Amino acid sequence: EVQLVEAGGGLVQPGGSLRLSCAASGFTFSAYWMTWVRQAPGQGLEWVANIRQDGSAHYNVDSVGGRFTISRDNAKNSVFLQMNNLRVEDTAVYYCVRCPSEYSSYKWWGQGTLVTVSS
Amino acid sequence: DIQMTQSPSTLSASVGDRVTITCRASQSIGNSLVWYQQKPGKAPHLFIYRASTLESGVPSRFRGSGSGAEFTLTISSLQPDDFATYYCQQHYDYPITFGQGTRLETK
Known about the structure:
heterodimer, B: 7-stranded mixed sheet, 4-stranded antiparallel sheet
């Protein structure tokens, strides 16, 4: 069974940093693109970033460019989101998502981890 | 960026009603359109991909249609479990974008 378990969320002050992780199991992790999607409280879904199977390419939404970095460790079946210089508007539930290809629908989602940026 | 606009934002309906949600893209996206259902406190659930293909396990009362820049999600006869928020998403080009959501509520 596919499982995606996010961790690392919490309360952080504006300008601070957090590193989210997503532990994958139940499938061949190295065969899939991985994505982070976020959802601010009471708001809609926003695609954040994705990363190729071997980590050689990654893309992100402009609003997090230069602040967030997606990475992966295929030996540990994990994908990460390093978030620096956090802003209040980054407050959201962050979901880890498995993608069958670079451009695809998202069937498998984690349960999400809440990041709260507040002073 | 490709903007995805859903209408209406909120839809009030009753069990048994036929309802339609529209999603418009700011440019043609072929059939690179996905529909998700989300319930409070839960991750989104894939319902329809490639604009019109039902995900396994999704009831046949759901139907997706459209191509290019205009798409619809139709529920032929609303059931109690269908009251939720629905999102469209394009995966034609970066950045991947979602519609703002349509909240389907009980009338």
